Amino acid sequence: MKNALALASALALAGYVDAVPATASTTCCRELSQALPSLFFSPSTSQYNTLINARWSGTSVLHPGCVVTPKSALDVSKAVKIITKNQCQFAVRGGGHNANTGFNSIDGGVSIDLSSLNSASLADDRTYVSIGSGITWGEAYDAFNSSNIGFTGGICEDVSAGGVSLGGGQSLFQPKRGWAVDNIINYEIVLASGEIVNANATSHPDLYKALKGGNTNFGIVTHLKIAAFDFDGLWGGEVFVSLNGPQATYSQVQDQMSQALVDFTANNHLDINTAVQLMTVYLANNQGQIVNAAFGNTIGEENPASLQEFLNMPNQVKHDAGHIKLADFVHQVSEFQAKGYRQVTSSITFSNDFATVRDIWDVTDAIYNGLEHKDQVDWMISFIPQPKIQQSYSTRSGGNSLGLQSVTDDQIVVWLTSRWTDPSLDSMMYAARDDFIVATETVAKKYGTYHPFLYINYASPSQNPLCGYGVDNFNFLKATATKYDPRGVFQKLMPGGFKVSKTTCS
Ligand SMILES: Cc1cc2nc3c(=O)[nH]c(=O)nc-3n(C[C@H](O)[C@H](O)[C@H](O)COP(=O)(O)OP(=O)(O)OC[C@H]3O[C@@H](n4cnc5c(N)ncnc54)[C@H](O)[C@@H]3O)c2cc1C
Ligand SMILES: *[C@@H]1O[C@H](CO)[C@@H](O)[C@H](O)[C@H]1NC(C)=O
Ligand SMILES: *[C@@H]1O[C@H](CO)[C@@H](O)[C@H](O)[C@H]1NC(C)=O
């Protein structure tokens, strides 16, 4: 920690970061220990290591000067006031799922860990759920497992509601209800001043719209109300297809899977109750190359016609499908996404098109095959349909900041989520991440299918997702950040996330 502080002050002297005295976080940690004694953890406590390591990817584990674990919006407000008064650097952790270094933790500063903001309740009239922003989707679905109620949220059990609420939110309900953010009816948020406000259709509607995609530029979200509906569970499951026989060859599987994805995406508006996500997984040490299709029908219809191409794939090594509660489905599909690895993330978006999908598969295979130590890497790429109809649900809740309302095509999001364990491979994988962006953009541009949107929650640090929202939305986010945080607390003191002040759009 001493080294981290020395480094921070050296960087500040060199002008790399906004000058913050190295002693600032010591002062903050001391004051936090007095203001929130039972929620405060210094490096000498036994909980500290558990708290700092509680991240999905080893690449995001850093060493803060202290950790606080607020249990209420008031606790968060107290922490923000202390941090602002003393001008300390800080980070916010929701579910800890973002792999980008510095997004959810910090060396030497204050870590605000929201995992104790995990309340969950259903409104008396069953029209919405109220949840703490630090709850994970797994915890949230478990809480309502016997309520026969549904709401839009993430598919991975350990991702938090807070992180998704500031980015977009892909779910099995997206063809029918849009992004998760389009279903949020209230954000409770602590502003830079420490004030706790509600952002909704009638209270601070500009902030409400900005938060729906605007990331970490406005404050710390503490609670959410998400629209709910009667829901008996899914018919869903997974098909695992080997790329290497026995019935079909590697390139035949690529052709058929690409065609299935493109057909599904083009027809998704005809069956908005069904969603599917593909993931290619090439396991380390030659342990197999498979494609996983995870699917769900949200009205419990068995074997819907829209899924037939996936259900009939050759080379199936495993096939699970059945009536299942959302909680159980989410636990099942998350088995593939275990903690304990190091991870990269990056993504682009393109119009639904067979040639683009198929070439992207080839060019990303070429990156993988060129890796010096590919035997030590699990190479994982997801393809996620983003049908045009998904964008039609935002206006009824006051719009979002994603800039997709006027897209004219069905789209597909491609997402690199590869993993490895040996830190000495980090630079190889960071280079692969950058190559992935260049290669996929090149293919999409070649076919005229490239779209500047990229899902901010999948973006790499070198990408500019806020620019992908379009210049009007970007300017709106900038103006709204200045209005609610005139002193730039979330720009200068909280480095994690994509910042309007650090982004220049060409
Ligand atoms: C395996 C896996 C599966 C995924 N599945 C899905 C999915 O099904 N749908 C989907 O939409 N996305 C999914 N994602 C992407 C996910 O949305 C992002 O990784 C997201 O950033 C994680 O949010 P978090 O709160 O869990 O993570 P964190 O890393 O804790 O937070 C992410 C960022 O948001 C900030 N933040 C978090 N909470 C708050 C808050 N309350 N107030 C202010 N800032 C906050 C953090 O400071 C950080 O910068 C998945 C990611 C992974 C790795
Ligand atoms: C959810 O409820 C079902 C019964 O409807 C049960 O079988 C399952 O174990 C429950 N899952 C969780 C995570 O509580
Ligand atoms: C919107 O904010 C106002 C003002 O804080 C609050 O009274 C109202 O309950 C909020 N609406 C919702 C849906 O939470």
TrEMBL record:
Keyword Oxidoreductase: yes
Keyword Lipid metabolism appears in the UniProt entry: no
UniProt keywords, alphabetically: FAD, Flavoprotein, Oxidoreductase, Signal
GO MF annotation terms: FAD binding; oxidoreductase activity
Domain (FAD-binding PCMH-type) ranges: 60-231
Residues of the signal peptide: 1-19
Record Gene3D superfamilies: 3.30.465.10
PROSITE patterns the record matches: FAD_PCMH (PS51387)
Domain of life: Eukaryota
InterPro entries from the UniProt entry: FAD-bd_PCMH, FAD-bd_PCMH-like_sf, FAD-bd_PCMH_sub2, FAD-linked_Oxidoreductase, Oxid_FAD_bind_N
Pfam families: FAD_binding_4
Family from the record: Belongs to the oxygen-dependent FAD-linked oxidoreductase family.
Protein name: FAD-binding PCMH-type domain-containing protein
Organism of this sequence: Hypocrea virens (strain Gv29-8 / FGSC 10586)
Organismal lineage: Eukaryota, Fungi, Dikarya, Ascomycota, Pezizomycotina
